[in-house]
Amino acid sequence: MRDPEEELLEILDKAGVDFTSSLPCEKFKCLLQMIGRAFFHVPLTREEEGVGICAGASLAGKRPAIFVQSSGVGNMINALLSLTGFYQLPLALFISQRGIFKEKIEAQFPMGRRLPGILRGAGISHSLITSAKDFPLIERKLDGLYLKNKIHAFLLSPEIWEKSEIRSQEPEVEILEPGCETISVPRRGVKFSHKPALTRFEILQTVAPSLDSKIVVCNLGFPSKELFHIRHQPSNFYMLGSMGMATPVGLGISLSTKKDVVVIDGDGSLLMNPGTLATAAHFGPRNLTILAIDNSAYGSTGNQPTFTGSCVDLAKVASGFGIKDAVTLSTRKEVAEVMKKPCRGLRFIHVRAVPGNMDLPPISLGHLEIKQQVKEYIIGK
Description:
Elements: H1 4-14, E1 19-22, H2 29-38, E2 41-43, H3 47-59, E3 64-69, H4 77-85, E4 91-96, H5 109-122, E5 125-129, H6 135-148, E6 151-156, H7 200-207, E7 215-218, H8 222-231, E8 236-238, H9 246-254, E9 261-266, H10 267-272, H11 275-283, E10 288-294, E11 297-298, E12 304-305, H12 314-320, E13 325-329, H13 332-340, E14 347-352, H14 367-379
Helix pairs in contact: 1-6, 3-4, 3-9, 7-8, 7-13
């Protein structure tokens, strides 16, 4: 008799799953180790990040699956609804449902036990998987969700793995020497060496020629409207919601195609999900450029200040996370010269900008039209 982990891996393989991501859960740690060996796998720093990365992979034609525990679902709801569901991208959620079977951690009870109701309230279909006897249900649902571009959550009871004979192999942890100099964090009132000279609109005008025929993932709100006005092309993916998800989406695409990918992100968005910079540094895709336009403000909501105006240096943050090619620029000439260079490795281009938005009409494309154009450009259909 096979162990349940082996059965589930066979189902995933048969369904054509080819892109996986996860955050750990002790209850199915053996499963996660096996998935990491059997499939392309992205370890995550935060559950929400995984939604964005899987969305990018889906745009590139992959069949993604994400593995998390129930406590992390609360970190995913907005991205699942305003990104994955909104753009009708397929995603299989495998959730270790804590708080229902021999649970020793009381803090797992509230989310674990209420999870079915939370998913129903969010309009996310789900299946309760209480034993390996329920695995045929997974097989039936998987095929349909990828064909119909749906989200489906499989709530996996820890009871499934109780009699498994597979044992966890504890990984060897290698302590690496620091790869960069110690960073001195600037204090409030710090004077940054690069004085902002251009608005975001002017920066986008400057880089537009370098975006030709590249896959571009643009931050939500005014940045997307400005890019659409300056240089629309079918390969532009405009974020219409899900703040903090531009870089994760771009990373997911870059890991799924050899075509060059440029993310146009902002300081407020990057501060919301900085852990993705660590994930990007870990994989180091050679086709990814992150253009961080930093105007020290939440530009789409009234220019409220962000901490990059007082104490955070985004280039040093990126460098600290392990991105070796991280620079700060501010002039038109600097930005144009760097962006026109061929991408030969992961780059983080931090451009300090003057706050301000160009008054422009909304993007005249529907969200599904945006998705379809980008997907056809990436996979050539």
